[in-house]
From TrEMBL:
Signal peptide as annotated in the record: none
Pfam family, one: Zn_clus
SMART domains in the record: GAL4
Family matches, as CDD domains: GAL4
Protein's UniProt name: Zn(2)-C6 fungal-type domain-containing protein
InterPro entries: Fun_TF, Zn2-C6_fun-type_DNA-bd_sf, Zn2-C6_fungal_TF, Zn2Cys6_DnaBD
Chain ranges of the Zn(2)-C6 fungal-type domain: 20-50
Source organism of this protein record: Cochliobolus heterostrophus (strain C5 / ATCC 48332 / race O)
C-alpha cells in the first residue's frame, strides 16, 4: 500500500509559524509572533490574541492538550448535567481525557454528529454517532478532529473565548497528527484515515468578514482537501473498499441513474469505465457490466450546454484547456440528472458532496488562477449545494462564495462565462426568496423537453421497463 497521499501535503515556502496569533492562523498567513501585537494585526488595528502554549511531554499531566488553565465556569458551564462531573479520567489516543474533552465528545455524540447526516439513513447515523467516535479513541488524528468540530459548534451555541481557542488547538493537532498518519498508512489505520478525511472539509470554515479574494482562496483550499480524500479512497477503490465499515462515508451515489430523458448529440462524451466516471462513480464490483448503456450524453441546463459547446469548439487551438474543463462538465451532469429523477433526496446530496472528487489537479490550478469558466462551473455546483437541507456548507457561505465568483467573472472579458454565472446566481436568489424546492424547480426553467414534475414519472417508467427486462431474461433462462 502506498505510504503517502500527496493530495493532503503541500510544500511550504517558509518555516511554519507554530505560535502565531489567532488572526494570522485564521487568515493562513505567517505571523511574526511579536507581543503584545504582531505586525499584521498592529498595522490593521485587529485584535491580536495568542493561544497559550501547552506541553504534551509528560503523560502525568491530564491537561496537556488544553489551551489554558483558566476556570471554565467563567464563560460557559461545561457541567451541563451533574453526572458529567463524575465521569472518571479515561485513557484515549490523546492521553487522559480532561473534563473539557469529556464534555466535547459527549456534545459531539448528542448534537454535532447530526450535522453530517443529511438524510434519514440509519447506516450513516450509526457511523457518525457510534462507530466513528469509538474509532477515534484509538486514533489520535480522528479524535482531535471530532473534538475540534465539537468545540467549534459548542462555541457557536454558547460563545466562549476559551473554547474558541481550544477549537484552534484541536484543529492544529488534527492536521499535525494526520500528516504523520498519511506517511504510514496501514490496514489498521486506513479506515480512520479515510473517515478523518471526510471531516477535514468542515474544519476550516470561512469567516463572515472574508473579502471576495479570501472566499476564493478558501474555496480553493476546500477543493484541495477534497482532492486529498479522492487520493486516499483510490488506494482501495478497486480492491474491496465497499466492504469497509466506513465505505458509506465515501460512496459517490446511492441510486443508479437512468439515462437522460433527452439526448443532445452535441454533448456526447466517452462513457469511460465502470467505477471511474461520474455516471458510474462507485467501485466496479457494485455494478453490472451493462450499466453504461445509453449514458453517452451530458444532461446540462441550456446555459451550461451553451458554454460546453463553446468550450469544445476551442479544441483545435486550446486542446489542453478543453481537456481540463471537460471532467467538471461530466461531473455536473449526474447532479442535474439526479435532481430531475429523484428530486432533493439522498442521492442528490451525495453527488453534491463528491463533485470535487472528480476534478483534476489541472482544473484546480485553473480555479486558483481565477479562470472564468472553471469558476463558473464551481459556482453552479456551490449554488446547487445550497439545496441540500442539511450540510455544514449551506447558508451564508454558499451565498457569499457564489457572489464572490460572480463579481470576479464579471470583471473579466469572457462574455460566455459572464452569461453562464448568472444562472448560478439566480438559483441562490430564488432559494433566498422562495425556498429550496422552488430553487430546485427553477433549474429546469427554459429547459426544452425537461420538466420538474415529469422526472419521477420518467423514473417509474424506466424502473418498470427494467423489471420487465429482468423477467424476460429469467424466462429465457428457465425455458
Amino acid at each position: 500500500m502506498a505510504r503517502r497521499s500527496p493530495g493532503f501535503v503541500t510544500k511550504q515556502p517558509h518555516s511554519k509559524s507554530r505560535g502565531g496569533c489567532l488572526t494570522c492562523k485564521r487568515k493562513k498567513i505567517k505571523c511574526d509572533e511579536a507581543r503584545p501585537k504582531c505586525r499584521y494585526c498592529q498595522q490593521r488595528k485587529f485584535d491580536c490574541e495568542y493561544v497559550q502554549r501547552f506541553s504534551s511531554k509528560t503523560p502525568e499531566s491530564s491537561s496537556s492538550h488544553e489551551a489554558s488553565p483558566q476556570p471554565l465556569s467563567n464563560e460557559v458551564d461545561f457541567y451541563i448535567s451533574s453526572s458529567q462531573s463524575l465521569i472518571p479520567p479515561s485513557n484515549t489516543s490523546i492521553g487522559t481525557f480532561t473534563s473539557l474533552d469529556h464534555y466535547l465528545l459527549q456534545y459531539y455524540e448528542t448534537h454535532v454528529w447530526q450535522r453530517f447526516v443529511m438524510w434519514d439513513d440509519p447506516v450513516i447515523k450509526t457511523l457518525h454517532k457510534d462507530v466513528v467516535p469509538k474509532m477515534g479513541i484509538s486514533h489520535t488524528f480522528l479524535l482531535y478532529s471530532l473534538l475540534s468540530i465539537a468545540a467549534t459548534q459548542s462555541n457557536i451555541q454558547n460563545p466562549s473565548k476559551q473554547v474558541e481557542k481550544q477549537a484552534l488547538v484541536y484543529r492544529q493537532k488534527t492536521f499535525e497528527s494526520y500528516k504523520t498518519a498519511l506517511q504510514r498508512i496501514t490496514p489498521d489505520n486506513y479506515e480512520a484515515v479515510l473517515a478523518t478525511g471526510t471531516f477535514l472539509l468542515s474544519l476550516v470554515l470561512p469567516l463572515a468578514s472574508y473579502t471576495d479574494e479570501e472566499y476564493l482562496d478558501w474555496l480553493f483550499s476546500l477543493l484541495k482537501l477534497s482532492e486529498g480524500l479522492r487520493v486516499l479512497a483510490s488506494l482501495r477503490w478497486d480492491h474491496g473498499i465497499e466492504k469497509l465499515s466506513v465505505y458509506p462515508l465515501v460512496r459517490r451515489e446511492s441510486r443508479i441513474l437512468p439515462p437522460p430523458p433527452i439526448i443532445n448529440p452535441a454533448t456526447h462524451v466517452p462513457t469511460g469505465t465502470l467505477g471511474a466516471t461520474p455516471i458510474s462513480p462507485n467501485p466496479p464490483p457494485t455494478y453490472a457490466s451493462s450499466h453504461l448503456a445509453g449514458h453517452n450524453g451530458l444532461f446540462l441546463p441550456p446555459l451550461l450546454t451553451s458554454v460546453f459547446e463553446n468550450t469544445v469548439s476551442l479544441q483545435d487551438d486550446f486542446g489542453l484547456y478543453v481537456a481540463t474543463l471537460l471532467p467538471a462538465f461530466q461531473a455536473l451532469s449526474p447532479i442535474f440528472l439526479s435532481l430531475y429523477y429523484y428530486h432533493i433526496t439522498e442521492d442528490f446530496g451525495i453527488r453534491i458532496s463528491v463533485f470535487p472528487s472528480f476534478l483534476t489537479s489541472e482544473f484546480l490550478h485553473l480555479v486558483r488562477q481565477r479562470e472564468p469558466r472553471a469558476l463558473v462551473l464551481v459556482a453552479w455546483w456551490f449554488a446547487l449545494a445550497d439545496l441540500v437541507p442539511q450540510g455544514w456548507w449551506v447558508g451564508e457561505t454558499v451565498r457569499r462564495v457564489v457572489a464572490a465568483i460572480g463579481r470576479e467573472v464579471q470583471r473579466g472579458d469572457d462574455e460566455v462565462a459572464k452569461m453562464t454565472v448568472c444562472g448560478a446566481e439566480r438559483i441562490v436568489q430564488v432559494f433566498e426568496s422562495e425556498g429550496g424546492e422552488e430553487a430546485a424547480k427553477s433549474v429546469f426553467d427554459g429547459w426544452r423537453g425537461v420538466r420538474w414534475e415529469v422526472g419521477p414519472m420518467d423514473l417509474a417508467a424506466w424502473e418498470t421497463a427494467q423489471l420487465v427486462h429482468l423477467e424476460s431474461l429469467f424466462h429465457d433462462i428457465t425455458v
